[in-house]
Write a structure and sequence with these properties.
Number of strands: 4
CATH architecture: 2-Layer Sandwich
CATH superfamily: Molybdopterin cofactor biosynthesis C (MoaC) domain
Oligomer: single chain
Largest sheet: 4 strands, antiparallel
Low-confidence stretches: none
Distance between the termini: 27 Å
CATH topology: Alpha-Beta Plaits
Mean pLDDT: 96
Strand order of the largest sheet: 2-3-1-4
Helix content: 25-40%
CATH class: Alpha Beta
Length: 135
């Protein structure tokens, strides 16, 4: 792991996005799938994933997260997942935000795969990261 011990604490925030493309009929049915409500389940899965990022990504620092917000917006041809993660620490939370968005997208895929064989997960990227001094 990289030594961040000499760095000052800072308020850090990262915002990441992922997209699940699917048939319009599938997108309309996401709350009523055979496995249950895909959107609610994916939201919880994304939050849980952010909290366990250091267990999933080798050499990633475990961080005390102060906020994890996972939003799933249904659009005509799929779902846009947006994950926001915040901490006060010596290193950033980009990986936590990316993992949250990715796992939420994977959860939507898992829950809807029985009714849509052509879904695609993609466009996973970091939208923003910020750092502010602790006052």
């Amino acid at each position: 792991m990289v030594d961040v011990g000499g760095k000052p604490l800072a308020r850090r925030r990262a915002l990441a996005r992922a997209r699940v493309t699917m048939a319009a009929d599938t997108a309309r049915r996401l709350r009523e799938l055979p496995k249950g409500d895909a959107l609610a389940t994916a939201q919880v899965a994304g939050i849980m994933a952010a909290k366990r990022t250091s267990e999933l990504i080798p050499l990633c620092h475990p961080l005390p997260l102060s906020l994890v917000d996972v939003r799933l917006d249904v659009v005509d041809d799929g779902v846009e997942v947006t994950a926001t993660v915040e901490t006060t620490a010596q290193t950033g939370v980009e990986m936590e935000a990316l993992v949250a968005a990715s796992v939420a997208a994977l959860t939507v895929y898992d829950m809807a795969k029985a009714i849509d064989k052509d879904m695609v997960i993609g466009d996973i990227h970091l939208l923003e990261k910020t750092k502010a001094p602790v006052e």
